[in-house]
Amino acid sequence: MTAVTTLDTPAAVTSSRGPRGLLWAMLRLHRWALWFWLLLVAVGAGALLWAYGPGADAAWAEYHKAGCGSTTPPDLGCDLIGPAYTRYDTFVGVGAGILGLAPFLTAAWAGGALIGRELESGTAQLAWTQSVSPARWLAAKLAVPAALLTTGMLLLTLLHRLLWSTDGPLRAAMGSRSWYQGTTFEANGTLATSYALLGLAVGVLAALLQRRALPALGLAVVVLALLTTVLGTVRPYLWPLETLTNKHEYPAYIGMVVDEGALTSTGARVADPICVDNTKCLAEHDIVGFYRDYHPSSHFWPLQLVETGIVLAVAALTVLVAFRLLNRRTGAAV
Amino acid sequence: MTETAIEAAALGKGFGRRRKQALDDCSFRLLTGSVCAVVGPNGAGKSTLLSLAAGLLRPTDGTITVLGAAPAAVRERLAYVAQDKPLHPQLTVADTLRYGRELNPGRWDDQVAERIVAEGELEAGARIRTLSGGQRTRVALALALGKRPELLLLDEPMADLDPLARHQLMATLMADAAEHGTTVVMSSHVVAELDGACDHLLLLGAGRVRLSGPLDDLLAAHRLVTGRADASLDPHTVVESRTTGRQTTALVRPEGPLGPSWQATAPTLEELVLAHLRAPEAPALRLDDVREAAV
Questions:
Q1: Cross-chain residue pair B86–A123, CB shorter than 8 Å
Q2: Domain annotation covers residue B254
Q3: pLDDT tens digits, residue range A40-73?
Q4: Entry pTM
Q5: How far is CA B110 from CA A26, A30, B99, B121, B207, in A?
Q6: Where is each ABC transporter domain found (chain B) (predicted)?
Q7: Are residues B207 and B227 in the same domain?
Q8: Which residue of B has its CA nearest to A135?
Q9: B211–chain A nearest CA distance, Å
Q10: B293 in a domain, yes or no?
Q11: What DSSP state is assigned to residue B127?
């Protein structure tokens, strides 16, 4: 082995074997995190697949057994939720929940175990005094988890979408879950994955700032929670709204409603005086109609992609700051 | 032998917002092949200096050059063992050596690393977290030497070892360094630990260089003198003097022949270091450029 390597020039050996070495180190050092992630993805995938197959079948069987589904519109009481549908709903919730929780788990792990603990115990410095620059070390710390996270999250997202595309009638019958609701919205597109990557970036930067595992873990989770709250709040305004108007009563409630109210004869939007059907009251307030600003379901992808773009941009910026911070501190020529 | 292993020029490192100076205006030079002892009290800046040399910290002032380049550019050629011997606790001894092999492609020498581990009778399958402090030190040294460094930076390397293991590891280290011409820089606040092993001394105090140069030259530049309390020591530089009764004992740097009223002996390394530590205001002495001029 030694005899063979000495025949090559050191530079050539470095370039051909370096990445393999770091990849090996990453997988070996974070073996338990890797197993945990694989387990989490397996549980999520299992739950979604079960809901997609036997879960949905059982829910339908229960529905038909109650004598529903033969008339349109369905009889009153058919949206009464039975045990089979509850079970189905729980399994969907587990799958979607893992997609929703993964970014926070990632942030906590990245802040605590991936970087924070290594800076605290000095094992990061141990790596930097092998033939690995701090920048390459950080690149490996980001790239390997990012690849595994993306793969797992996209797999779960695809399964969730598969489920979503087929269980429409069941949802309609039971009147549960809408496309725009938080976890569902994120689990059906690119957002869950991009938030997981943001969690990774935030965790890494928090650890570089704190240099200790526990404070970094806390900071990472708090910052990610703040970011998701802010982005969740501005989500409806990331794409132009559509407006429905109607005379005498409110237009139908379809899709993600952002604003609603009454219209005067001049077309001005005012707060609903809540006259209900009192014509005198309506005339007094000069109310001639009602409006709803909303996103139809066709806005799913535009909303999804704009927010994904923002999340990935914030993540990229965070990574850039992390690299600059590390370089400034260690004085490393890459 | 004429190449420079480490050269510091007006090197300074401050920490925190207040820029508390751990190192301040340090200049010294160390030639390749030397075995250098970095000595000083706790908080003198020994660890900071070694971290700077290892490219783990960026200086706030001045420069440090290692093996003719910036420390970060010669990462492959130097090894560093930090004071608390950080190792991944979840790895086994064998995996830790594999870690060294994977992260030092083209340099790693399995035989060297495995020999050091084998001398400590460590089991390859034992996890690092189950090892004693001394055993961890051994694995950390194996990781450092397996890299075949040209410059070996050791921060308080022997602190956790029992006297026998210390003796044995020091012998291994010195034999390895002599065989490969490795430059070794070793810090300690226990002077006795370094005596006999080192040929170069760097004494730090309060972040500054107090003494720097080949050990023999530094010792030769000082005399431990005893004489009557009223005798004058002019024009010699007095590092430290103590008077008990009518007798004065002093460590001096003679500027010429000492008068007949003084009894002079050569100081030991420990006496030299202790006198300088007890007298923080004594002027610094650098002899590390002299040899270069002579070569």
A1: yes
A2: yes
A3: 999 999 999 999 999 999 998 988 888 887 666 6
A4: 0.89
A5: 21, 24, 11, 16, 38
A6: 6-231
A7: no
A8: B72
A9: 28
A10: no
A11: B
